[in-house]
Structure formats: C-alpha cells, structure tokens
Amino acid sequence: xxxxxxxxxxxxxxxxxxxxxxxxxxxxxxxxxxxxxxxxxxxxxxxxxxxxxxxxxxxxxxxxxxxxxxxxxxxxxxxxxxxxxxxxxxxxxxxxxxxxxxxxxxxxxxxxxxxxxxxxxxxxxxxxxxxxxxxxxxxxxxxxxxxxxxxxxxxxxxxxxxxxxxxxxxxxxxxxxxxxxxxxxxxxxxxxxxxxxxxxxxxxxxxxxxxxxxxxxxxxxxxxxxxxxxxxxxxxxxxxxxxxxxxxxxxxxxxxxxxxxxxxxxxxxxxxxxxxxxxxxxxxxx
Amino acid sequence: xxxxxxxxxxxxxxxxxxxxxxxxxxxxxxxxxxxxxxxxxxxxxxxxxxxxxxxxxxxxxxxxxxxxxxxxxxxxxxxxxxxxxxxxxxxxxxxxxxxxxxxxxxxxxxxxxxxxxxxxxxxxxxxxxxxxxxxxxxxxxxxxxxxxxxxxxxxxxxxxxxxxxxxxxxxxxxxxxxxxxxxxxxxxxxxxxxxxxxxxxxxxxxxxxxxxxxxxxxxxxxxxxxxxxxxxxxxxxxxxxxxxxxxxxxxxxxxxxxxxxxxxxxxxxxxxxxxxxxx
Lengths: 286, 279
Prior knowledge:
The structure holds two protein chains of two kinds.
Chain A: H1 21-44, H2 49-54, H3 66-74, H4 77-108, H5 114-126, H6 133-142, H7 149-173, H8 177-185, H9 190-201, H10 203-219, H11 222-227, H12 236-246, H13 251-284
Chain B: H1 4-13, E1 16-17, E2 26-27, H2 31-38, H3 40-72, H4 78-90, H5 93-103, H6 109-116, H7 133-157, H8 162-170, H9 175-186, H10 188-203, H11 207-212, H12 215-219, H13 226-236, H14 240-274
Helix pairs in contact in B: 1-14, 2-14, 3-7, 3-10, 4-7, 7-10, 8-9, 10-14, 13-14
Protein name (chain A): Spermidine/putrescine transport system permease protein
Subcellular location (chain A): Cell membrane
InterPro entries (chain A): MetI-like, MetI-like_sf
C-alpha cells in the first residue's frame, strides 16, 4: 500500500519565514530545558570541586583546564574509548552487512515461506532483549567468550537485526523491477545488482540503521557490565560509572569525564541527524 | 535466535536452586516463582515498573505532541531547535544518570536553583528519600526520552501531505483546528508505535536506575525495577536459579504486554506502518 519514498521532506523548499515571537519563546524554553543540564556539566568540568561546592550554580572563576587534562592523561579514558569504538564499529559493520543481506533476500527473492520468515524477524522486535541477559551470560560463559569483544558484539548484532531488517526491506522492495531487469540485461548478476544499484539507492536507510546500531552499541551498559569484568576491556559507559563511584569527592573530575564521554555520541548524531529522521520516515510511514 | 534460545535455558534454570557453578542439580520446581511473588521487594519493583510505564506514556505523550507540532511549523532556526531537543535522547542512559545524580546531590545545583527562585520548600533528598526517588527517576527518564517521542512524531508529521493542511487553511480553519482535526488524527499510527516502544523500554529499564539510585535504596525496593532486581539477585548475589525465574517473569510480562498491545492497537499499523507494506 504505502510505498516508501526515498525523497527528503519537502520542507524548506519554499519561502521560510520568521516565526512569531511566541513560537520562538516556546522553542527557546524547550531547548533550554533540553540542554541546560548538559551545558552545566561541560562548564562544571572547568571549575574546581571547592568552587562547585561553594556555589553549585556558578560559572568557572577562574577557568581551570586541569580536570579535562587529568582525565585525558591519567585515567583509562583512551583505553575505554578505544574499546567502545572497536565494539561499536564491529557491531555496526556486522549489523549493516547482515541486515542488508537478509533484507535483500527478503525483499527481492521469491521463495516459499518468505513472509513467514519476515514475520519471524518482526516478532523479534517484540521480544524483550533485556530479559534474556542472564541466560545470555551463561551461554557466553559456556562458549568461553566472557571478557572478549565478541561477548558484546555478537548479542548486540543479534538484537539489532530485527529493526534493521524492518527498516531496510521496504526500501529495497520499493526499487522498481525494471531497474533490476535493466541491470540484468547489462550483465549484472543479482549480487552485482545489490552492490551497484540497490545499495546506492537505499543509502539513506543504510545510514539510518548504521547510526542507530552505532549509538545503541556506544551507549550500552548492561551487557558490558555483565560480560566485561576485565578492567582493560571496559567501555566508556562502564568507565563513567566506575570513575564516578571511585572519585566521589572529585566532583569536577567526574563532570569532566562525563562531558568527554558524551562528546562522541553527540558529534556523531549531529552529523547524521538529517539522515536519521529521513530514514525513520520510511519506518513510520502510515 | 539470541533471545529465544537463552529464554529456553532461562525456563530450565529457573526450576533449580543453582549457584551457577557446575550443572544445576537441586530441582525445586516452581518454588523460585512463588518466592519472587512473595518478596515485597519484587512487588515494589513491579509497582515501580508500572509507574514508569504509565508515567512515561501520560507525561511524555502530551509534551512530545506539543513540541512536535511546534517544531513542525516553518520558522527560521527550526533545524537547530530540533537538534537541541534530541540531545538528551542521544546521550547514554548511564551518562545521563551520573549527570543528574551530580545535579541532584544534597544542596547541589538543583537545590541551589530552587532556593534562589524562592522555592526552597521543594528541596528534597531527591534520590535517597524512599517515597520520592521513583518520581525523581520518572522525571529524569521523561527528560531523556521525550526527545525520542519527538523524533518519531516529527517523522510522522513530515508524512502528512501539505495539500491537506493547505486545503483546511483555505477552508478557513485556524492553526489549532488544523492540528486538532487533520494532523493529529493522521499521526495515530506513529503515536501508537511510540507508545509500544516506550512501554517495552519502560518494562526493561535498567541502566538509569542502576547508576542513579543508591544501592541501599534499591535493595529496599524504593527504586528497584524488575531488571535491576533480576541482576542484583541473579548475577551479583549469584542466585542463578532465582534470577532466571525473575528473567522469565519479566519476559512473560513484557511479551504478553507487547502481544496485547499489538493485537488491539497496532494490528493495522504494524503491517502498513512499521513495515511500510500492507498485504
């Protein structure tokens, strides 16, 4: 019924006017509530703990770089950022490749039980992954995977696949049959069609699922908490929690560590925000 | 697969009293389940999950709808505002939890702000008072997740054809009438999908509670959820059989809620909307 368009929304194409003052007042208030705490944390990292205790809501006076410098040079920040990056990139790559392959098969091949298989994947969306964490831990332990990157990557890939397939399949289905025929006439195999035609055409959706998988992995906490007891393998969320409970009196240091840990996800999201909203449009299209 | 197979194991382990070492041998039948439902802490956890599920829907829904309608109007700088509203959603739950924990410490920033605004009477032991903590957590969760509802609703709004709203405007409808009678009804599927995702997320909430709440407060049940109860007992106290029983309960509750929701509310949408394709 609803065929998903890959086109960006038509907004912004026409004359953009200034809003009413009320619109701005409301929008500003909302934005302030959303980011004031974050800004506070970032600024707080430039103060000293005594300053913060004396006046919790004040500005840095004087400005100190020491907290950030300390976190970057003395803590495990870099090691943890590296671990997070390896795990998040590994997860994203596997999710995109496997998701694309599965969605391609489910969208462009006709075979018996195809819809059944697809329903199986959509059912995966309904399964509460968090409930499976204890038995999952036992399984990984029996496979001797505890304290390895795989212990986080493999389950994350499995949990992300249903959503990935549900987002990707409509994009791949919407590619006209004629294009596939044309590619075949030009001598492209099915794989060639996937590589040269289908993949470029579904790029927005691929970026969306990639970003979603990356951010989810980057932010995940429960799974690494259970399966990565080795401090050298800890990811940033674990690091933030450890740092904050280890240095409870060093408020400024915790603020600095927390802001640095926020940075990558924020940057990544800012760069990809348009793509995400565009990709979700396909997913929530009514 | 990675969910189904482990859940099968969970059902099996849950029938044993098992410390996690060696094969489970001490078969206890359904005793772990009856124990869970007799434990007042677990019942507190259930209540807290219910508060979070319904609180999230009732508070975030109207806020998100209002903000999404506002940010769907065309005005300069709209893109920047949209981006800022999504910020809390992108941050890790752990980071957000630590951040708010710092902001809410005794005589910390929030307390200082309240006092300077002459509302010192509102100052609480936000995260330590047994009666207050769950509402504090609900407020933090609202702050974090309302952005997700807004993203979904904005995506849904951009699918509402301009022709419809323009036609209504030509017919003399006010901005509010257009939203009320044209836009919001068309958002139905998006709203239901958000409700579904929010509900499933709320039932499994763990990270935020884990890092924000004081363990003592959690162990008294004031801030425990099913997931933290499960990890506290199963993993850290090494009551593996019992923890797996809690996992099965959590799984069944979430899955039944999901199925009921899908059966009664999502049936039309899941074909047409989530999958983008109706049969």
